[in-house]
Amino acid sequence: MKYFFAELKLYICNKVIAKIPSHRLRLWYYRTIMKHNIGQKSYILLNCSFDNSSRFTMGNNCVINAKCRMDARGTITIGENVSISEEVIILTADHDPYSPNFQGQNKPVTIEDYVWIGTRAMILPGVTLQKGCLVAAGAVVTKSVPPFEIWGGVPAKKIGERNQSLQYTVDYKRLLH
Fold it and tell me: What is the similarity comment for this entry (predicted)?
């Protein structure tokens, strides 16, 4: 019975709540029902999906744009002033390719302060995106990214460096998103 209600909560989250054009209602559901720890002035836009509850933390002044997938079967921890662009996928679970019985495994993903993830990027299990790094659109990140580096490609590799004096505040509030 416990499994049924956990699955029902996820179904309602992903198929009903995620489509309601009221950020306040979605945020209430994520914080209260899903038990996500979400900071002040942070936004999760329409049609984002979650694979688990209570293993998701997001700091202040962050945005997760529309149609992102947050696989929180492992743990996803997001710092402050983080911008996650549309259709990003963050995975925390996969299977051991060397296991004879297709053994599943969870690995946390950590996204530190001032990280910017471009559209349709994919972050794989066990990755840490360190302070101020930028992941280019369409990149597949298979290993941790050092601070203030710009990574792109498949698989992602260093393609540049960001300014280390970042001082901005992410504030991306939309009325019906």
Answer: Belongs to the transferase hexapeptide repeat family.
